[in-house]
Structures are given as C-alpha cells and as structure tokens.
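Predict fold of Ubiquitin-associated domain-containing protein 2; 353 aa.
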Amino acid sequence: MFTTTGSRGMYKAPLSKSLLLVPTALTVLLMLLQPQYQSLFEYNLQAVREDHQIWRLVYGRLIWLDLKDTFCSGLLIYNFRVLERRFGSRKFASFLLGTWIVCAAMDLLLAETLHFLFELQVEMLPAGLLGPVFALFVPFFCSIPRVPVTQLLGQISITNKSLVYIMGLQLLTSSYFMWVVALSGLLSGVLYRSNLLWMQRLLLVPAWLSRVGSLLLEPLLSGSEPTQEAPMGMGATLDIQRQQRMDMLDQQMLLSQLAQVRRNAQPPQAGLLNWNRFFPTLRQRGRNAAPAPAAAAPQARRPGPSPPPENTPVTEEQVARLMEMGFSRVDAQEALRASNNDINMATNFLLQH
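Predicted 3D structure, encoded as tokens:
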C-alpha cells in the first residue's frame, strides 16, 4: 500500500541490504553478548572536544546503541531502497558517505552554537547511522513523486510516502537530543544535494572501489527479482486488495507483451518502450466491457499495421513529476498513456525497465 516502486524485497538494492544486516547484527551482538564494550561506541562530544578522542566521530556513528533506534532506522532504510534503485548503488553510496562526513562537522557546529546562544551543554548524542538516515529524507522528498492512496476521515490524505514520514517522526522523538542529529542530517542532505563546494564531486566513491564492491558483495547481497504477487496484509481493505491485484495483473500483461515483441525481433520504436502496442489496462477493459484477452489474441496476430493508439490525455503535472525523476518527456508521456494516467504504475514501468 505504501510502496513507491511496486517491486518488493531488496531487488537491485545490495547496499541497502548491507546497511540493514551488518550494523543491525553488530548492534544485537554488542548489546546482548558484549555489553561491557558499549562505552567505546558512545557518541560522546565532550570526549571529542576535551580529550581529543577524534575516533569517537567514527565509532560513535557506526552502531546503534538503542533497539528502538535500530528498528526505526531499519524500516527507514528499507523504504529508502527506492533511492538506490533510482540513482544506482555508486551514487547512493556517495550520498551516504558524503552526508556521513558532513554530519560529523555539523554535529560539532550545532553543539557549539547551542552552548553559545542558549548555554545548553550537549555532551552526548544518540549513536548509530542516524545522520545519513535523516539526510535521505531530502532526496526522498524531492525525487519520489507523491501519489495519494486513500483518505482518512474524509479529510486527511494518505499517500505512498506517509508511512516513511511517520517512522521518521517516531525516530525523532526516541531520545532527547535526537533533534540535533536530525537537524544535522537534514542540513547535510540539503548541502550535498545542492552540490555546495562541489561536494558531489569531492565526496564521490571511487570507480575502482565501486567495481570491487560490485564483484565481491553484490552476488551475496543482491536480492532476487520479484516474480509472484506478495500476500495482502491483514489490515488491508477489500478495495485496496482489488486495486493492488489489478495493478499487478496490468503489470504482468504489459511484461508478457514486451517479451512477445522481443521474441518477434521487431525493430525498436521511439521512446523507452513501445507502450502503444500493449493491451489496454484492466480498468479500461472493465469499463468498456471488452472481450477477454484470449478472444483478442487472434486479432493481435493479424498481419498489417497495429491499430492507432488511443488519444488518452496526459496531464503536464504528472509528466513533470516523472521528468523530475530523470526520465525523458517522451518516455513519461508513453508510460502515462499506457497506464491510463496512473502515475504509480508509470513509475513502476520506468524504474524497472
């Protein structure tokens, strides 16, 4: 219901999977088996300033020391995997590395500012990968389109991004000084995204390191491509279940037609996919009371040119949203026409193909 891309699991998101497994496993191991070493991983700013323990800027920002922070951060990283599919693993890793470095300077700067203006002494901050997690809200807000899902009490609009913001709010209220880390992460995300002082170029993961990680880690951490429809949630209503099932059937029909076009070895058409050769969507079939696909199959095999596409109107606002994600105008228009102006389905097709 709240997914942004439609594909489930960790498909094409090996870095997100590693961020879920490795720090979480180290957190559980440290808290349950070796609790006497927790003090080494505390994010103690006072020790950094007075005792010059610079290493705490690294150790204190690697492992979570609170199970609530671990759970909320894990859910957010799982939802932010769409950004890795959108940008690629190397660019996604560069964003995490850049914001992780900038957050260290931001934490110290904010702590000194609070002490100078309000005489508020910030001695210790929550530990873990919290700064980059909050920084990921910036590209998530700017790059992922907002698609309404349902209405709550007839007035409050629930979108595909509502659950992510609720989890961020829960993480923000988990400890007293979490708002300092959140502000530091958000500022770091804005600075990196705006490419201030050429951060995106200076803090870019080297190509050789990206290739080594792809060769060594991707076969172990890459998720399999989803092939079957996941079971519906227990709390989903009948309308939402029907909506999800129809979306999945639409997608399977379009993919089967794409495979048939490739098998026939026909010359490629303009744009990303030749959406006009596909069957109409299931919603349009239901409204027009068209015959079943089995009856329409012989007609699709008749020789001669394909029938002209329907002049489905496409709103410029939806086209602009898809273009902001990096797709061309032609591909965005074709995807919207093929999906009957369903921007969620159009985003699925463009991201997966």
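The domain at 14-221 is CATH 1.20.1540 (Rhomboid-like fold).
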